[in-house]
Amino acid sequence: MKLWKVVLPLLLLLVAASGIVNAQAEASLALGQPTILQVAPGSAARNSYTVAQPSMVMLQAIGASAQPTLTIWQGDKSIAAAANEAGESVVTLTTFLDAGDYTVETGTLSAEATTIMLVVQSETPVTIAQLAAGVSLSGEVQRDAPAAIYRFVALNEPAYLSIESGLAQRGVAVRLTETAAGSELAMLDSLLMGARIHIAPGNLEYQLEVTHSGIAGAESFTICFVAASVGSCQAGGASAQPIVTAEPQPDSSCRATPNSANGANLRQTANTNAPVITAIPAGESALVSGVSPDGSFYNVVYGIWSGWVASVAVTLNGNCGALAVIVPPPLPPTAVPTLPPPPPMPTQPPAPPQSSEPCHVVFTAAEYIYAQPEADVAYLYDQVQAGGEMIPVGRWSGDPSWWKTSYGGWWLNALGTAGEVRGNCSNLPLVAWP
Known about the structure:
The chain is mainly beta and 434 residues long.
């Protein structure tokens, strides 16, 4: 920065002598044309700026004795800002801007009036692509194409958005926003290799910005947006197609809504004696997949759960005229505890078996982890994929089939799941909840 302190006063004199724009309030900025601003302490210069097409834009403010700040506004909404917390004499702001009209606000941290040169250094057009649910998408950002922009709409059930780097030791820079409000929801630094974000159900539209970190020449990445009930994406193409605006289509599905204010039980099979998986709350609805042969139960999907709900407990809405007849699974047998015969008295007690492995759980299929020991979608925390492992640290004193794990203290129902217990787990303590 010391070089700027020597060069900038000469540069400003050359700019003034050459007749380059000396901006007044609301003067328009143009790509590559420096604009000279006189900024007083506590005030800011404002310049209009129009972007003809979606672009990654780089603005730079340079002051000889000033510490400039930059903020981009669209109407009364702040789009991006460079607060210059380090107090540098050169500040750069690089951000994605959709096509439209903006105001660039240039301020100063200096205690006296100062001269600042503002310039739009670059405008790199960016294609906005649609991110389809369930398809793994690979992409790449480079120095001459430093950004990739994707948009997607939330599903009617919980979903996951995963971003993984294709580099060996670094990632790409990622920013997630909600498009209607423009609010920033998450950022991922290029020092991280990837992340998975839990997307709530609804109809909000999101924008994912993947930008070049400036380290490697080409930086590859993979994106997966998928329903939590599906768990993984299918392989997709090398790049997504641009957004095509279409008229919204009416919902042609059949949905079941509870009749009672207490909701409706979702069971493992079509029998009132079957175990309850979860409850469909009042006011919510579940997607109807079919009906039992006697018509007494509907097979439905609610969030990540699939099960059976009594037909008398719900009201159907939508296109329900030709439901598939589905034969429900048999009622799980009720376990009757039996006491084994006492073992014969050994002449010499055998040595207790010792395992060389520590206590751990290996998953043979995808399995859900909960924030508390209850198999309720409201407490769903994460999903472990097949082949994953987890270390238990205790068992719930209220129901020992629930195991507390070292993964953030979250809970796993170890019985009747895809978890295979290995190692010596006999000394796990009983823990209370809450």
